[in-house]
Amino acid sequence: KQEVTQIPAALSVPEGENLVLNCSFTDSAIYNLQWFRQDPGKGLTSLLLIQSSQREQTSGRLNASLDKSSGRSTLYIAASQPGDSATYLCALVSQGGKLIFGQGTELSVKP
Amino acid sequence: SAVISQKPSRDICQRGTSLTIQCQVDSQVTMMFWYRQQPGQSLTLIATANQGSEATYESGFVIDKFPISRPNLTFSTLTVSNMSPEDSSIYLCSAGTGAEQFFGPGTRLTVL
Question: Which residues of B touch A89 (CB under 8 A)?
Answer without folding.
Answer: 42-43
